[in-house]
Amino acid sequence: MENRCNLDVQTILDTEFHVDFKGYAPAEVDRLLDLVIEDYQMYEQKIAEMNEQYLAQERTIASLKAKIIELEGRAKAMEDAETVNSSQVDILKRLSRLEQEVYKNKQGF
Fold first, then answer.
1. Distance CA 80, CA 85 (A)
2. DSSP string covering the chain, please?
3. pTM above 0.70, yes or no
4. How far apart are CA 109 and CA 106, in angstroms?
5. Which of 12, 24, 35, 98 could be joined to 6 by an S-S link, Cβ 3.0–4.6 Å?
6. Distance of CA 50 to CAs 47, 55, 77, Å?
7. Across 24-33, 36-45, 57-66, which has the greatest mean pLDDT?
């Protein structure tokens, strides 16, 4: 099915039917209604395709949000680990200075 519409608003408004004995000529009305039906089928197909794309995008967004949360958690864990490591390094430096002072004091005796 094509993605091009058979009719537009102005074409529908400008359509005139020949008057028959019982009203409008049925063949002309049927032709126009067939075109309208084709357009509606095309619209329904396009809407279904767009809904599928929308749902796929929603799934992608949810997946990316989960990935962001996971990465933020990892980043926080790394920050915490760096804080612990820097605290441990600080403690080791203090301990080293204490050992040096103790060693100096033992040398003096």
1. 9
2. --SS-S--HHHHHH----EETTEE-HHHHHHHHHHHHHHHHHHHHHHHHHHHHHHHHHHHHHHHHHHHHHHHHHHHHHHHHHHHHHHHHHHHHHHHHHHHHHHHHHHH-
3. no
4. 5
5. 35
6. 5, 9, 40
7. 57-66
Residue 72 half-sphere exposure toward CB, CA atoms < 13 A: 6
How distant, in Å, are the alpha carbons of 36, 82, 85, 94 from that of 9?
11, 66, 71, 84
- Over pLDDT 90: what percentage of the chain? 28
Structure tokens at 102: 């103790």
Q: Compute the chain's Rg from CA coordinates.
A: 39
